[in-house]
Each structure stands twice: as structure tokens, then as C-alpha cells.
Amino acid sequence: MKIRCPMCARETTVPDDFQFRPFCSRRCKLADLGNWLDEAYTISTPLFPPDRPYDPEEPGGGLGVH
Ligand SMILES: [Zn+2]
Q1: CATH code at 5?
Q2: What is the pLDDT, as a whole number, of residue 47?
Q3: pLDDT tens figures, 2-49
Q4: Between 66 and 14, residue with greater pLDDT
Q5: Disulfide engineering: 65 pairs with which of 8, 13, 53, 60, CB 3.0-4.6 Å?
Q6: Is residue 9 situated within a structural domain?
Q7: Cα–ligand 1 centroid distance for 52 (angstroms)
Q8: How many domains is the chain built from?
Q9: Does the residue 39 lie in any domain?
Q10: Residue 48 in 3-state DSSP?
Q11: Better pLDDT: 9 or 51
Q12: 55 C-alpha vs ligand 1 centroid, how far in Å?
């Protein structure tokens, strides 16, 4: 199938089960993820407290109750 990579805007043809869709490559997928993480770190209240594992026993499922 033909895709247009949202990261580098390059049109390319990839297999239907291409693992990095909708990106053209692993590099673009990781770059997008990196951008997303950069944004997440700018939020004053982190979604997940650092260095703390997910705890299903905690109220709110460990996601934090606001
Ligand atoms: Zn790309």
C-alpha cells in the first residue's frame, strides 16, 4: 500500500502489514514518539510518576485521580 509518512512527508509503498505504518521507517516512527515524549515532559503534572510501576490495586488504577 502507498502511504504518506506523517513525519517526513515522503510518499512510499510499504506492505499492508508494515510494522511502522503510518510511518515510512522505524526512524520516523521513533522520531514521532520522541516528539510526543518531549511534549509529555512539558506537562507540569506527569501522567505517570517516574520510577513507579503500574499498581492495579491503587485507586484509579495507578493512573492518578484528579
Ligand atoms: Zn518518514
Answers
A1: 3.30.50.10
A2: 62
A3: 999 999 999 999 999 999 999 999 999 999 988 888 877 676 665 666
A4: 14
A5: 60
A6: yes
A7: 33
A8: 1
A9: yes
A10: coil
A11: 9
A12: 36
On whether residue 53 sits in a domain, the answer given is no
Distance from the alpha carbon of residue 42 to the mean position of ligand 1, in angstroms: 25
Domain that holds residue 2: 1-44
Q: Ligand 1 centroid to 2 CA: how many Å?
A: 12
Tell me if the bond preceding 6 is cis, omega within 30° of 0: no
Q: Looking up cell 516528539, which residue turns up? A: 35
pLDDT given for residue 36 in this prediction: 81
Q: What is the reported pLDDT for 26?
A: 95
21, 35 contact by CB (below 8 A):
no
Q: How many CB atoms lie within 10 A of CB 29?
A: 18
Q: How far is the CA of 31 from the centre of ligand 1 (A)?
A: 9
Distance 24 CA to ligand 1 centre (A): 4
pLDDT value of position 60: 64
> How many angstroms separate the alpha carbon of residue 3 from the centre of ligand 1?
10
